[in-house]
């Protein structure tokens, strides 16, 4: 039997955009974002093709994929659904308040209806109304969740309200662990999942990005408590999205989905450490990465029990 893990979902949601473009509104605090060029039609077509190829590669590994189309022109970041909802063992779903006003239209009732139809959903807690109070928590972008140790790690930013994080952790029974993280220029990193990925037997973490030495040591030791191998990422590797990866349950075992750019920047010993735990699955998504996110941002994992068995 292939190895399975509570940390690694076997089913996911992805959104394929038809009019992708980097979001000028989010560029104010997402310093990983670049403008992909002036030919908007070419950019949109390239992104559509990248998502299509990524979805095919994930399906080929035996990962169950729920694929939704976005044909609107008003949701440039819809390819990143993990920011507006998350799912949790026991049948729990959360819907989140988004920092940028033009991202709030990404929340989709059809996705929530699919979850209720195909999975055992006990409750949906909707925090989105707290946008009116200036409280934001952008899902598993703002938090990197350790489902095995019941911890929610979160770097402070405009997109992570500590008040709302505490509320989420109370509702969903996680321990909040908050820290500061900055890029090579000393600017706050907008999402925790850019610098941190927690797998079953490993953790990728940008220790260089945590300026407080004592806090850096505490986080590394906390992650080691679960017996994980710690793979420390440099600022340059974080900028190449090496931290923005996701462990998934494939047909033949655990898979780490990451971008081709991320894989290229890893050192040989880092790749070897990962290979002891997972099969590496690189996805070529250079156009999507212009929007300041990578593979992890594109995947909303489903930590829910299916209503009936499914074949792949």
UniProtKB/TrEMBL annotation:
Question: Tell me, what's a Pfam family for it?
Answer: DDAH_eukar
Give the InterPro entries listed for this entry. Answer: Amdntrnsf_FN0238 (IPR014541)
Give the protein name, as stated in the record: Amidinotransferase
Organism whose genome encodes this protein: Szabonella alba
